[in-house]
Batch of 4 targets.
Target 1
Amino acid sequence: MLLKVKKHIGLKVTQSADVHRIFVDVLKRLPRFEKDKERVWTIGLNRKNLIRYIDLVSIGALHGAIVEPREVYRTAIHLGASSIILVHNHPSGGEPTPSNNDKAITEKAKRAGSILGVELLDHIIVTPEGHYSFADNDWPLSPISSSQSSPLETCRRTED
């Protein structure tokens, strides 16, 4: 669901703090009874890192939300974003430390974006008190090595 946050559309994202400021505003707009749910969004960017859209990908419960790469990239493909930033909140607040699930989702989304040609620039966890940026913390991801084959490479080999 695309968020109607026109004041953020067209803004340039240069650092994770920019995203945190935007999402503190987004979270403030939620009704009180909705603030205890984890949410996952994507920010679609153009080549100049200007925000094209903010999309609500998933709403979960207090301790998690379901995140599938097809949902993460659906709007990016449909609207032609050149890159995305994955964002989710920790509704319990406090330190926005990533869980093992957060790390696994980031790696899976990074790989999917590599295959689709839509770069995942960052995954940012936000709370009212602060944020955690995977990009600012050296991406604890294992790169896709050339020995791993993507589905596209496999298709090309079978067609030869």
Note: The chain has one domain: 16-159.
Target 2
Amino acid sequence: MTTRLSAAFILAPFIVGGLLATGACAPGVTADSSLPNFTDTTQGSNLLYAINPNPPAGAPTAVALFDGASVRADQAFAYDFAVDIDSVGQAVIYPVSKLATSISNVRRIGMQIMAGPYSVVETAPRNGYAYDSTFHVPVGTILAIESSDPINCGTSITGSGFYSKLQVDSVNTIQRTVRLIFTVDRNCGFRSLIPTGVPGS
């Protein structure tokens, strides 16, 4: 007696594998957020220095949002953006691609200006981002950020990137420093920007 498998049975593993590879969910499959959001500031030892003209040796000039870390913008390009100060005293936000070489494989960063007090912006937009573009940002301005992240989100079924927001809190043109407030949702594909706690969406 010959046992024959149905075409649906044979193809099922490949369909599931394809869904996982593309970040889609199979019908009836849901994924919940599990990591808590966090809000942080670049102050104290995390105070950011303008990348130009000559920041102090070893001083942080960039932010790696997923880790909530102020880091030095170096050739590892393991950060989302670096900061500078323009001629009129505004903060300049450079996505990592603006500092990388043309052959470097860096994450894509999208940003857009948001209206309203910082505390009111609780959900990142789905679209409307300007990708890999430099922003000149006055004090008090809020940016929503979409970060593609193949390292932390490369195997996620909910999305290939994560979302965050930041506000320029202050700029010191004498010391060439920038203080930011930022909130990060590390749950890949989720857009909640509540300040703390595990988000629901």
Note: The mean pLDDT is 85.
Target 3
Amino acid sequence: MREGARGAYPASGRKQGRLSQEEAASLFPADWERRSYLAFDVETTGLDSKTCRVVEIGAVLFVPESEVFDGPSMERLINPGMPIPPAVIAIHGIGDADVRSAPSFSAVARDFAALAEGAIFVAHNAPFDLGFIRGEFARAGLLPPTNPAMDSLVLARAAFPGLSSYSLPRLLPSLGIRSERSHRALDDAIAAARVFVEAGRRLTGLANRQKV
């Protein structure tokens, strides 16, 4: 969920900030609802992708116009090869015993890459998740995916200004979106997909009305 720029990655120029509604709407081509996206999320041992590791990955393929968010997916616990700090366990509930017999990231990396083939990434605070994905692929001796990506956090800020918080647990009720669990990878990936679609429709709708 963190790294450079404009809500779409690779991005040019300025560091992650805020987009106007016009700038955010410009990231959506006319056929955006018919394209294939992979929403994904990682749970980790901490915040720094250089020193911390992934403990769970979740991802789901979706096409916005289908209104279906239970398509091909993956949800895997990952053995990070290091202890999970108690403060982090308190957030996502994944402890050392849960991942002791889980595969390493390198064992599931190709499954993730296969699921992602041809899709546009969606993540909430995308640079954070992208940073961990790139780090884990590098440690596995694999080239990381180069899919373009959209950041549902940046887009939600532009589409729905004035909310008190844009973290998923607080944003979802504001948009009328239900989620069974927060801070678990597949649930958060599905939530990010739903936020992305709501934000995209809001932004493109506003842009279309301004053209009339």
Note: The first strand starts at residue 8 and ends at 9.
Target 4
Amino acid sequence: MTAIEQARKERGFTQRTVAAIMGISLTRYKSIEFKPHRATVDEADILRLILRKPIRHLFPDLVDGIFRNRDAENHALNIMKAKKENLYLNQRGGRGQMSKTNMYTGAKTWNPFKGCHFGCKYCKPSFQAQAKRQLHNCKQCYEFVPHGHPTRLKNIPSASIVFVAGNGDIAFADPTYVRLIIEAIRKRGGNQTFYLQSKRPEYMAQFIDILPATVALVTTLETNRDKGYSEISKAPAPSERYRQFLALNYPRKIVTIEPVLDFDTDVFADWILAIEPEYVWLGFNSRPKQVILPEPPTDKLQEFVRILATEGIEVRGKQLRGLPLKGIK
């Protein structure tokens, strides 16, 4: 007996009840091979989440582990479909549309567009590895080729920060399709912040006049050094990317320095100060065992942060490996 089945029986739930709670059919439930040790979010994770929490407030028609009638069961199924969307714990068929992201604290990805051709070395064990789980859902997602998912345009997450096309680079999207994404953001309204991020920031120049105030333009600058960068990524060299981003006449800019590569402190700090971002995200390579990158020593990184903080630039920490850097938010 699996731990999942044991938990189900301890709570006194029938398999049909649990299937309804999960938002799947009884046949689907019976076909699942539960593997609690899996690291990915799947139906088993959803079930564990639900069984750990009191659910009677969600399902008043649940009596002794059994729904009173089929209407009550269908009502529960609809509740859980909505709940799973809010938790971004979709079933295999829907995964990849919206999800939690380790890229930015408090952010959710929204993926009406996916894929990239920059081939960044540090992306392969993270985003590209995640894409390999999508073979049975979308071959283009599996191959990480740039493509759109128009059906996702209306399903914008409710997080304070929405990382648009976080599983790709939006510069590879057709401009007509990007305008549809921007229009969906405009209709959303509210006070969320939408990150439109690209390592080819000049691509965003054509949209500046139609961007709503909720959009922040973002680019990645891992270093100021061009030498050797072509071995890490096919994206524009750091100096070219800096020039492109600096040239964008737009009030809301954010810089991501992750994974931070070794840099020249004064030059790199001058770049950031010239851009005048709302804030900067700073972090190390999140896969150091899989990808070895040239990183700055701690004292250099601390001096860099000190310069930015002194000039009023907020630095937000990401993947800092426990380093006690002063000036990090």
Note: The chain is about 35% helix and 15% strand.
